[in-house]
Amino acid sequence: MTGLNSANGNAPRAKDEPFVLPPNTDLAKFRRFLARATSIVEEVNVKVVNSQDDISQEEYMHPSKAHDMYHILEKTHFISSAVVAPRNVPDVQEVMKLANEFEIPVWPFSMGRNVGYGGAAPRVPGSVGIDMGKNMNKVLEVNAESCYALVEPGVCFFDLHEYLEKNNLRDKVWADVPDLGGGSVIGNTLERGVGYTPYGDHWMMHCGMEVVMPDGSLLRTGMGALPNPKADKSKPPHEQEPNESWQLFNYGFGPHNDGIFSQSSFGIVVKMGIWLMPNPGGYQAYMITFPRDEDLEQIVEIIRPLRIAMVLQNVPKLDNVLVSAALEGHRDSYSNSDKPLTEPELDKIAKDLGIGRWNLYGAMYGPEVVRDALWSVIKASFSKVPGAKFYFTQDRPDDVALKTRSNTFQGVPSITELQWVDWLPNGGHLFFAPIAKVTGDDAKAQYELTRRLSEEYGFDFIGAFLVGVREMHHIVCILFDRKDPDSRRRAHALIKVLIAEAANRGWGEYRAHLALMDQIAETYNFNDNAQMKMNETLKNALDPKGILCPGKNGVWPATYKKEDWTLHKP
Ligand code: ADP
């Protein structure tokens, strides 16, 4: 592959010689680039990726900023040559201009905790990582009356929650949080991650962005494009008081541009507004267990009308038995066999843990009288499934899964859900996440297909259905041993087959690991790839040198020969 230097961590190398150089860049050019980058952001904010330490950091709370901690290819495949951390918006603009001048690809990330999808690693080996979160990490504003926050890239869900707590604002507003609270609000939203309060669709709930474009210019989207008449024009643009409606109305005037900055390589987001949920004045999480595997169809048919009508106020999470089992213990605490768990074993786990083969988690928001009314409908509806059992959090004080969800569903972040990654030793994970309509038939068909293939490749099926409003994200967790090359190889082979089989049935993924972006992008090919052609046209117009995240989500700029770079070679 173009530009690959020795990726052998033991080879002697100079202090400023990375494992992998950027494409078409020799060491002398790389050094000149680094010197210039250092003059922009200062030495303490530039790090060459060249030591074992740089690639052995594998903890979620202290993530690697240089490579994918849950790698399925070699550890040093998706890796940066250096990481540069801008101190402010003008630094980001200067770094982009520098990258254009040197024609060196860059890859921005906010926290680097995008686990299961590639972490902080770039798609093109040797790109320069731009660590947006290290220095630009302020909650710029919380408006508890109009219920929004304005944040910088380094604000993670823990930070935003803590800010609300410290400023005694939780009794007024809640921030929605995803399963793992360490991700950044901006990174998670741009990647279209979800949480579980009624504000769980983060992209839907963002409002207004400030973006550095690939040429280094700066814009504000939506109402932010209209200057605030009271703003001090003597200040640099990024410091000028924004329009007072920037975080209140998403669309502004003319084409609505925000979408092109999501899962994209068209700009670096330096500020973003996110709506907060008003404290509902009362809250109750619940769990409903269903005893039989074949209950799935009926459960999903019951969920659809309730969710569309908002009787189910938040995203219901329907877990198969092993999601809870993995939260409670490692695989070897349940079975000695190295074969996928059998029906009797799964039934036994459910019985021992006092849970169902399927377990539905949800929450009700509002004063008691409202919750009582909702609960009477919810309980009556799910009671149609024989053997369904109903619990509130207080009924199961030792249930880790229920307790964790009860927190998450009210915007209290945690990292407890990370525990299930340790199902296998040296746990790594990949997510296969197809979208489908909310019908019993679709749920059953997806479950049958994904379970059959998971087991064929030697993995237990661990999965959940998350019902947005009119669709469901089916999240299949492929848990592998990342220190075992065979386990990694099987995981990678499995997900490739799943993507192809799903596309044959009209199911597409909503998000993907770096290694799979090309394959998935190719499945979205209606009318001779019309959408990809438009994305490429935009890419080449906005970023003619192709320096910002080449290859992200399968969009390759004209400066890269796609056939040489794609990882999908059918
Ligand atoms: P997390 O915030 O969950 O730790 P990352 O920081 O790893 O996630 O970001 C996930 C992905 O989102 C990155 O690989 C990048 O493609 C995109 N991204 C994150 N932050 C920004 C940003 N500020 N501007 C543009 N893209 C970003």
From TrEMBL:
<dbReference type="GO" id="GO:0008720">
    <property type="term" value="F:D-lactate dehydrogenase (NAD+) activity"/>
</dbReference>
<dbReference type="InterPro" id="IPR006094">
    <property type="entry name" value="Oxid_FAD_bind_N"/>
</dbReference>
<feature type="region of interest" description="Disordered">
    <location>
        <begin position="223"/>
        <end position="242"/>
    </location>
</feature>
<dbReference type="GO" id="GO:0005739">
    <property type="term" value="C:mitochondrion"/>
</dbReference>
<dbReference type="GO" id="GO:0004458">
    <property type="term" value="F:D-lactate dehydrogenase (cytochrome) activity"/>
</dbReference>
<feature type="compositionally biased region" description="Basic and acidic residues">
    <location>
        <begin position="230"/>
        <end position="241"/>
    </location>
</feature>
<keyword id="KW-0285">Flavoprotein</keyword>
<dbReference type="InterPro" id="IPR016170">
    <property type="entry name" value="Cytok_DH_C_sf"/>
</dbReference>
<dbReference type="InterPro" id="IPR016164">
    <property type="entry name" value="FAD-linked_Oxase-like_C"/>
</dbReference>
<keyword id="KW-0560">Oxidoreductase</keyword>
<dbReference type="InterPro" id="IPR016166">
    <property type="entry name" value="FAD-bd_PCMH"/>
</dbReference>
<dbReference type="InterPro" id="IPR036318">
    <property type="entry name" value="FAD-bd_PCMH-like_sf"/>
</dbReference>
<feature type="domain" description="FAD-binding PCMH-type">
    <location>
        <begin position="76"/>
        <end position="279"/>
    </location>
</feature>
<dbReference type="GO" id="GO:0071949">
    <property type="term" value="F:FAD binding"/>
</dbReference>
<dbReference type="GO" id="GO:1903457">
    <property type="term" value="P:lactate catabolic process"/>
</dbReference>
<dbReference type="InterPro" id="IPR016171">
    <property type="entry name" value="Vanillyl_alc_oxidase_C-sub2"/>
</dbReference>
<feature type="region of interest" description="Disordered">
    <location>
        <begin position="1"/>
        <end position="20"/>
    </location>
</feature>
<dbReference type="Pfam" id="PF02913">
    <property type="entry name" value="FAD-oxidase_C"/>
</dbReference>
<dbReference type="InterPro" id="IPR016167">
    <property type="entry name" value="FAD-bd_PCMH_sub1"/>
</dbReference>
<protein>
    <recommendedName>
        <fullName>FAD-binding PCMH-type domain-containing protein</fullName>
    </recommendedName>
</protein>
<dbReference type="InterPro" id="IPR016169">
    <property type="entry name" value="FAD-bd_PCMH_sub2"/>
</dbReference>
<keyword id="KW-0274">FAD</keyword>
<dbReference type="InterPro" id="IPR004113">
    <property type="entry name" value="FAD-bd_oxidored_4_C"/>
</dbReference>
<dbReference type="Pfam" id="PF01565">
    <property type="entry name" value="FAD_binding_4"/>
</dbReference>
